[in-house]
Design goal:
The protein has 265 residues and is α/β, with parallel strands linked by helices. The chain is 43% helix and 15% strand. The termini are far apart. It comes from Candidatus Electrothrix marina. This is PD-(D/E)XK nuclease family transposase.
Length: 265
C-alpha cells in the first residue's frame, strides 16, 4: 500500500495531471482519440477575456488538432453542469475571435472530474454537440464534447478504459492506494507523483486551505438546511416530509420540532 495525497484537492490533481505523459494518457483514454500534448498549462486564462466573465481552466493542453480542457471539482455546486458548458464555449469562442469563419481550427474537449457525489450517480456522462437526424444518426459535423466524470460511482460495469482511471482517482481519496491493482504505467507514475512524502510544504499549505474552505461551505450548507427545516416545522409540516426535503435525520428533526413547540409555549 502507498500513502498518497488525495486527488480531491485541486493542488494535488494539478500536480499529477500537469505531467504531459499522464495528461496525454488520461485524455486519450477518456476521448478514444490519439492526441499529442507536449505542454500542459495550469490556471489557464484567455487574455483578453471572452465575454463578461473570465474563467480559469485548471489544466489546459492542445496539439495541432485538439484543444483539451480538464477541470477538477470536489464539491458539486448547483450550476455545475452549466458552469462547465460555459467554460467549454469560451474555449471555442476564443478561436472564433481570430478566425475567418465560424469553424474553429481546433476540436475542443472539456473533461470535468467531480470527486464528490452527484445526484445522478453515474460515472460518465457526455454532452455530444454533433447534430443527428431523426433516426439518431450523427452527421459527423461537430466533434466537440464535454465529458463529466464521477469517480465515486465507478463499478465493474463501467467500460474500460474509463474504469481504471476513475478507480485510481477514487482510491486516492482516503490517501492510500494499492498500486498493485493498476496496470497502466501512467497511473503508477501518477501515484508516485502524489506520494505523501513528495508533497511540498507549499502544496500542503494549499491543501489545508482547501480543506478549511470545504469545511466552511459544509457548515453553511448544514445551517441552511436547518433554517429551512425550522421554517417547515413551524408550518406544521411532518417530520418525515422535512427529512426527505432536507436530508436531515428524523432524530434531529424531532428535537427541532420539540424546540419549536417549546418556543411557542
Amino acid at each position: 500500500m502507498k500513502k498518497v495525497a488525495s486527488l480531491k484537492y485541486g493542488v494535488v490533481f494539478k500536480k499529477a495531471f500537469c505531467d504531459p505523459e499522464i495528461f496525454t494518457a488520461f485524455v486519450q483514454d477518456m476521448l478514444g482519440l490519439s492526441v499529442t500534448i507536449e505542454h500542459v498549462e495550469t490556471e489557464k486564462e484567455f487574455d483578453p477575456p471572452i465575454g463578461y466573465i473570465k474563467p480559469r481552466f485548471d489544466l489546459f493542453g492542445e496539439d495541432t488538432s485538439h484543444r483539451v480542457v480538464v477541470d477538477i471539482q470536489h464539491a458539486r455546486t448547483t450550476d455545475h453542469y452549466d458552469r462547465f458548458l460555459y467554460y467549454h464555449c469560451v474555449a471555442l469562442l476564443e478561436q472564433i475571435s481570430s478566425s475567418a469563419n465560424y469553424r474553429p481550427g481546433l476540436k475542443v474537449f472539456t473533461l470535468v472530474v467531480l470527486t464528490s457525489g452527484d445526484r445522478h450517480a453515474t460515472p460518465v456522462s457526455i454532452v455530444d454537440f454533433d447534430p443527428r437526424d431523426l433516426s439518431g444518426r450523427p452527421l459527423c459535423e461537430i466533434p466537440h464534447k464535454i465529458i463529466y466524470l464521477c469517480p465515486k460511482y465507478v463499478s465493474d460495469e463501467t467500460p474500460q478504459p474509463y474504469r481504471e482511471w476513475l478507480q485510481a482517482i477514487n482510491d486516492t481519496l482516503d490517501e492510500e492506494v494499492d498500486e498493485s491493482q493498476y496496470q497502466r504505467a501512467e497511473i503508477q507514475k501518477l501515484f508516485t507523483s502524489i506520494q505523501r512524502d513528495h508533497i511540498s510544504p507549499a502544496e500542503r499549505a494549499s491543501m489545508i486551505e482547501e480543506y478549511h474552505q470545504e469545511e466552511l461551505q459544509g457548515a453553511a450548507l448544514a445551517e441552511g438546511k436547518r433554517s429551512i427545516a425550522s421554517a417547515l416545522l413551524e408550518q406544521s409540516v411532518s417530520v418525515e416530509v422535512v427529512a426527505k426535503a432536507t436530508g436531515l435525520s428524523i432524530g434531529e428533526l424531532t428535537a427541532m420540532r420539540e424546540q419549536v413547540a417549546d418556543d411557542r409555549a
